[in-house]
């Protein structure tokens, strides 16, 4: 409860022009749509995917870079100035980061679909330059901040994971690193559980208590969970690159214990919160918390040699579509109206209610379609059934359209409310 007040107090003075975070949110919505469209195109390949260029790899990166990282950039560029109390000195690095990263993702995806190495390289260089600028902005904010230690430590570690991720990715594109199963697995693990996993856990420590009107978990507990998770990740990735599968299981087990501890603490926060009706967004968020440890457990089973051929692919699917996509879209549903309310208010004016900025219909359509898509594609992978993947991807497309509708509607309503607040009172 005190946390929410700390974040909101004086936030208006540190808000960016809404065009900056919302360009990332709109791009995320478009890449979300593209990701499902590519999944539909690659339906026959998805159940047997083992890496390599093509529509499946393009779909995967449309979600990981185009939705997950895109949303994280847009949200953090606005949230970090608010929570750290530090205003951005200049806006051009954030704008330039968007101009490099947003189209760079598209170029990289085009390269994956065509298998054209030069196109992949151009996209990889562009988005890496955008990420570098983005990181420079965030690092300057973090260097001057003294509060929100849990979030800051998670973000520092996430940036280390991001650096490793970009270096490995570029090395694979430029053939500086031999692409085998161990390297591909390390790249995916660092991307999903390193960079995005640490960001998801760090932002949850701030956003979940804020939205539930509750106190955050104790700092010591959260940092202990972070340390266990990070240590397990290092063990898992290092052992995987060395081909030591038994040690990979030990590292993944450490991550699983940390994940369960994190999820239990977040559920305690919600249970203790003053706000009980948290809406559709928290149905998605809580569902993602179920799949988060399940994806790691499935990965452990796959590495242990469970007699089920698509076990490893299914574990990756649970991580990307079940955990991260569900979590990111759930959080985005909360963040966009919240930021819109702050931007729509002016000095001396009360921010509009969130209900004035967000319609429920597109979110209901999205939630239903998202869960149906997740189940159908999962079945298609498990039993190698192309029609199930096609059906799931079709529902995913409908849900993505509804989510893009929601994003555009929030932005439109924010502008209407801003215009009303700017009118002179008679």
Uncertain stretches: 1-6
Radius of gyration (Å): 21 Å
- Mean of the pLDDT scores? 87
Sheet-strand content, in percent, reads: under 5%
Number of domains: 1
Topology as a string of helices (H) and strands (E): HHHHHHHHHHHHH
The major pleated sheet works out as:
none
User: How many helical elements?
Assistant: 13
What structural category do the secondary elements indicate?
A: mainly alpha
CATH architectural name: Up-down Bundle
**Helix-residue proportion:** over 70%
Architecture blueprint of SSEs:
Elements: H1 2-8, H2 19-41, H3 55-84, H4 92-114, H5 117-143, H6 149-173, H7 181-212, H8 219-241, H9 245-272, H10 280-303, H11 311-344, H12 361-383, H13 386-422
Describe the structure.
With 426 residues, the chain is mostly helical. It has one domain: Cytochrome c oxidase-like, subunit I domain (Cytochrome C Oxidase, Chain A, Up-down Bundle), CATH 1.20.210.10. Helices cover 79% and strands 0% of the residues. It contains 13 helices and no strands. It has helices spanning 2-8, 19-41, 55-84, 92-114, 117-143, 149-173, 181-212, 219-241, 245-272, 280-303, 311-344, 361-383, 386-422. Helix 6 (149-173) packs antiparallel against helix 7 and helix 11 runs antiparallel to helix 12. It is globular, with a radius of gyration of 21 Å. 51% of the residues are buried. The model is unreliable at 1-6 (pLDDT under 50).
């Amino acid at each position: 409860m005190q946390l929410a007040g700390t974040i909101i107090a004086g936030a208006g003075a540190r808000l960016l022009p809404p065009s900056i975070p919302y360009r990332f949110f709109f791009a995320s919505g478009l890449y979300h749509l593209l990701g499902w469209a590519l999944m539909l195109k690659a339906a026959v390949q998805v159940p047997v995917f083992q890496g390599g260029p093509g529509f499946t790899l393009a779909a995967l990166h449309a979600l990981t870079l185009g939705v997950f990282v895109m949303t994280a950039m847009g949200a953090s560029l606005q949230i970090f100035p608010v929570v750290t109390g530090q205003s951005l000195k200049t806006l051009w690095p954030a704008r330039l980061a968007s101009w490099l990263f947003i189209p760079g993702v598209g170029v990289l995806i085009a390269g994956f679909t065509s298998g054209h190495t030069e196109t992949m390289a151009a996209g990889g260089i562009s988005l890496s330059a955008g990420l570098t600028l983005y990181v420079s902005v965030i690092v300057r904010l973090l260097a001057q901040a003294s509060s929100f230690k849990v979030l800051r430590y998670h973000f520092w570690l996430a940036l280390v994971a991001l650096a490793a991720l970009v270096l490995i990715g570029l090395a694979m594109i430029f053939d500086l690193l031999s692409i085998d199963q161990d390297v591909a697995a390390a790249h995916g693990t660092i991307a999903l559980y390193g960079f995005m996993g640490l960001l998801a856990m760090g932002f949850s420590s701030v956003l979940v208590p804020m939205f539930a009107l509750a106190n955050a978990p104790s700092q010591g507990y959260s940092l202990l969970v972070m340390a266990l998770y990070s240590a397990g990740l290092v063990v898992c990735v290092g052992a995987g690159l060395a081909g030591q599968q038994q040690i990979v299981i030990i590292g993944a087990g450490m991550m699983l214990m940390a994940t369960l501890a994190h999820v239990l603490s977040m559920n305690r926060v919600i249970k203790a919160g003053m706000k009980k009706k948290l809406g559709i967004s928290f149905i998605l968020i809580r569902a993602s918390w179920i799949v988060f440890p399940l994806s790691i457990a499935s990965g452990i089973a796959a590495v242990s040699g469970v007699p089920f051929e698509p076990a490893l692919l299914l574990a990756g699917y649970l991580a990307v579509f079940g955990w991260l996509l569900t979590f990111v879209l759930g959080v985005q549903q909360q963040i966009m109206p919240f930021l819109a309310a702050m931007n729509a208010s002016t000095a001396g004016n009360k921010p509009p209610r969130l209900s004035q900025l967000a319609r429920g219909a597109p979110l209901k359509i999205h939630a239903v379609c998202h869960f149906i898509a997740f189940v159908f594609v999962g079945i298609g992978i498990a039993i190698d059934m192309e029609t199930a993947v096609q059906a799931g991807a079709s529902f995913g497309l409908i849900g993505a359209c509804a989510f893009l509708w929601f994003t555009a509607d929030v932005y439109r309503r924010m502008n209407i409310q801003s215009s009303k607040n700017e009118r002179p009172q008679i």
